[in-house]
Each structure stands twice: as structure tokens, then as C-alpha cells.
Design a protein that fits this description.
The chain contains no helices and eleven strands. It is mainly β. Strands 2, 4, 5, 6, 9, 10 and 11 form a seven-stranded mixed beta sheet that branches. A four-stranded antiparallel beta sheet has the order 1-3-8-7, with no helix packed on it. Strand 5 and strand 6 form a beta hairpin.
Length: 122
């Protein structure tokens, strides 16, 4: 089993940057993903990276602005978020999937972090 803890959230002005971290403990040979949920909206896929890091996947809304990466030595996955927009405001969740592919399908993800708030002001 794996446990996930997110960090790095906060408030930033539009155009700014934040880097989210997700520290994993336990078994870590998982595909890792980031999802987000804004108030009144459904949870949506943001980005994913395969467990060896060779395959990444991004939602169209964040392509070119967000970058997902992982440091296997530190068992940590990162989400670098640049050129942030007010519509990026949400609670961001880290998740782990027993999958070889960087899937966007939330039902493949069996373990979730507690979530962390990201607020982008205009």
C-alpha cells in the first residue's frame, strides 16, 4: 500500500507559479497523477506520469503551462505550475494508480492524498 502527502499549495496572483509536491511512502511503483476539484465542479484530470517517468499525459487546459515530474530516489512527484490563471483555482489531489500508463481515468487510481488548496487571484 502507498500513502500520499501533498504540499506546496497556496495563493498566487495570475501569471505566477507554484510547485506542488506529493511524497509517497510504501510501495511506489505506481503511475502517479494529479487531479483537481473546483467548488461546485466535478473532479478533473490534470496530469499523470508513468512509474518509470517515460510517459506523461496532460489535460488540454494545462498543456504548455504545467509540468509533471518524479524523483524516484525521493519517492516524490512534482507538479510545476506556471502562468497560472484564476480558473486553475481548486483543491489539487495527488493519486496513485497500479497502471503502466499515465492514465487520465480517475477510476484507475486507488490511493488519493488529502488534497491541497491552490488559489489564483486576478
Amino acid at each position: 500500500q502507498v500513502q500520499l502527502v501533498e504540499s506546496g499549495g497556496g495563493a498566487v496572483q495570475a501569471g505566477g507559479s507554484l510547485r506542488l509536491s506529493c511524497a509517497a511512502s510504501g510501495r511506489t511503483s505506481y503511475t502517479m497523477g494529479w487531479f483537481r476539484q473546483a467548488p461546485g465542479k466535478e473532479r478533473e484530470f490534470v496530469a499523470a506520469i508513468s512509474w518509470r517517468g517515460g510517459n506523461t499525459n496532460y489535460a488540454d487546459s494545462v498543456k504548455g503551462r504545467f509540468t509533471i515530474s518524479r524523483d524516484s530516489a525521493k519517492n516524490t512527484v512534482y507538479l510545476q505550475m506556471n502562468s497560472l490563471k484564476p480558473e486553475d483555482t481548486a483543491v489539487y489531489y495527488c493519486a496513485a494508480a497500479a497502471s503502466y500508463l499515465a492514465t487520465h481515468r480517475s477510476n484507475y487510481y486507488s490511493t488519493w492524498g488529502q488534497g491541497i488548496q491552490v488559489t489564483v487571484s486576478s
